[in-house]
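During the second half of the funding period, the structural biology subgroup turned its attention to how the target accommodates small molecules. The most pressing case was zinc ion, which had performed well in the primary screen but for which no bound structure existed. We therefore specified the complex as follows and requested a full 3D prediction, including the ligand pose.
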Amino acid sequence: PVDAPDLTGAGPAEVLRRIFGYDSFRGSQQEIIETVVGGGDALVLMPTGGGKSLCYQIPALVRPGTGVVVSPLIALMQNQVDALRALGVRADFLNSTLTLDQRRLVEQEFVAGRLDMLYLAPEALGTAGVQQLLDRGKISLFAIDEAHCVSQWGHDFRPDYLQLSMLHERWPDVPRIALTATATTATHTEIATRLKLDDAKHFVASFDRPNIQYRIVPKDGAQTQLLAFLQSEHAGDSGIVYCLSRASVEKTAEYLSGKGIAALPYHAGLPADVRARNQSRFLREEGLVMVATIAFGMGIDKPDVRFVAHLDLPKSVEGYYQETGRAGRDGLPSTAWLAYGLQDVVQQRRMIEQSEGDLAHKRSLSAHLDAMLALCETVECRRVQLLNYFGEEAAPCGNCDTCLTPPEQWDGTVPAQKLLSTIMRLQRERNRKFGAGRSIDILLGRETDETRRGRHHELSTWGIGTDLSEAQWRSVVRQLLAQGLLAVEGDYNVLTLTDGSREVLGRRRTVMMRTEPKRKATKSSRSSG
Ligand code: ADP
Ligand code: ZN
């Protein structure tokens, strides 16, 4: 580490310049920093890459004492501390990876007032040992990073975060700053309540990331689509490919490697040393593609991630936005690409049904998924839809697939009725429920062993859907599922009717559908940027 510069009496602007080497603050950084330096509490909602870290690092340096940073990311504490030390900041961490001797040393430094910043895991703060330690030193502030982890209905809930409400009771004079990149109004309120941030000043930055181009394509051989996307638009670029399962992470990484793309796998099932090695290679080297589950990425600060691709449907808009937000932190044009298909919807609905937890929890998961599906099926600007979701108004952006190649809408009421009526007839006349494939076979009048055995050709909807292709029928099923006009149930993912389906069948409701555009979205933002 370089020598610690003498910062006695230095103000925020000077610290920004001398330690971090930046000329000016971004967005509301200055106001946030002044609030905390002045001893006030702050709740900061800022998108990934917005510059949250400085909001607590600078006050920690300006105020006397040690800034205690609560972070859920034990794996990344070392990186964060290394980065700060390289700047001459006296930072350290306490977590389960330290030996007893290492621990003692850190504790000594803290008590002696020789630390600017101390990183802790949330569970550590709950222990008497750590609490007593903190009483023996001087604390300049508490920073609660990834504060949305306190939200019980959120996608990153960590029970240990709940106890952080005691910080205020135990150390009432120490200012607290809670930070997150998750911005729904519900999470926002929940953070304030659960952390008892009653008098905190709220700073809500715009969540728009204008340099990210959002694109969502219907899945049709996802790996091949991904390869084409990478080769045609992001050859040699660094990026992240998210998959739902460990198995698909491995398969996809192998597939890409086989096609000459430098791809590394990352998921919680890999040995810790492999994960650490792949992560640090991704951070250090250029042009690597990280194929990962969502276990990867939180807290990763790599400015030049040029694309984030999703091969499976994220569970929520919050998750999607946070994951895609890892692209383009340097402000240069980047792509968020998602391939989504019928199978995704079916699979996720089933996962929710089988998940543990009470009805309220399942409803909440379902509502999150519905919002994600609505984003996938929207005929409007993706960015407008995203920002509206986070409570922000916006105008069509000109830099997403629906703006670049507007999808047409069509009245899909009649095909919807044909499909729903087929499902209803199978249920009533055959007393059976099937997956999407069977209904499509019936609509297309395709004889198979199964349709013969079930005498499905005797149904009145046999062959009445030949005006649409199989792919179009799949899109109809998907959109009906997305709109809640059809549901999936049971272990075999069979389709079943909803109250909404009955409205469609009873001609009390029309169904508008999205026509998938034929042309691909262009890279206009890249060439003009
Ligand atoms: P977040 O935690 O909100 O995702 P970071 O704190 O990691 O974002 O900041 C993202 C990037 O922006 C980092 O590389 C950081 O050094 C840089 N950055 C932050 N504030 C400024 C600033 N005022 N001027 C220039 N660069 C900044
Ligand atoms: Zn748009």
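Two results from this model are relevant to the next phase. Residues 519-529 have pLDDT under 50 and may be disordered. Residues 68 and 118 are 5 Å apart (CA to CA).
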